[in-house]
Prior knowledge:
Layout: E1 2-9, H1 11-15, H2 19-28, E2 32-39, H3 43-49, H4 59-66, E3 71-79, H5 81-89, H6 102-106, E4 115-117, H7 121-131, H8 143-148
Antiparallel strand pairs: 1-3, 1-4, 2-3
Amino acid sequence: MSERTLVFLKPEAVMRGLMGEIITKIEKKGLTIAAMKLIQMTREQAEKIYAIHTGKTFYDSLITHVTSGPILAMVVTGPNVISFLRNMIGKTNPLNAQQGTIRGDLAINIQKNIIHGADSPDNAQRELEILFKPEEILNYQKPTETQYLY
C-alpha cells in the first residue's frame, strides 16, 4: 500500500546546488515525486510545520533559517515512504548520521542539515496541507513500478 509524505530541501541544499542529487537518490530508491515546487516558506508556514518545537531553545533560529531562502518542497509517495525516507535522510545531527544517508554525506551542521522529512503519517498529512493544495498533488504510478519494485 502506498503512502505519501512531505519532504523539503532546506535553503542550504538549494543554495549549494544539491537539489538534483537528492532528487536522484529519492527516485533511485523507487519512490515517486507526486508534487514539487520551489518556494520561499513564510514564517507562518514554518511555525506551523515546526509547532512541535515551540518553546525549545533552537525554535526561533530554526524558523529564521528555513525562511531565509528558497526551499524545494516535495510530496513523495510509495510503500512505507516515511520509514524509507527517514532512513535515507539520516539522523538529525549530521555528526551522528551514517555515511550513505543524505545528512551523513552532505550536511555538517545540526540546524543546516539539508532536508526535512515528516516523521509520522499524522505529521506528514498535517505538513502536506501547510505547503500544498490537494489539486497540486498528482496521483500516478510509473509503469515499471509494479513490474520491478512491488
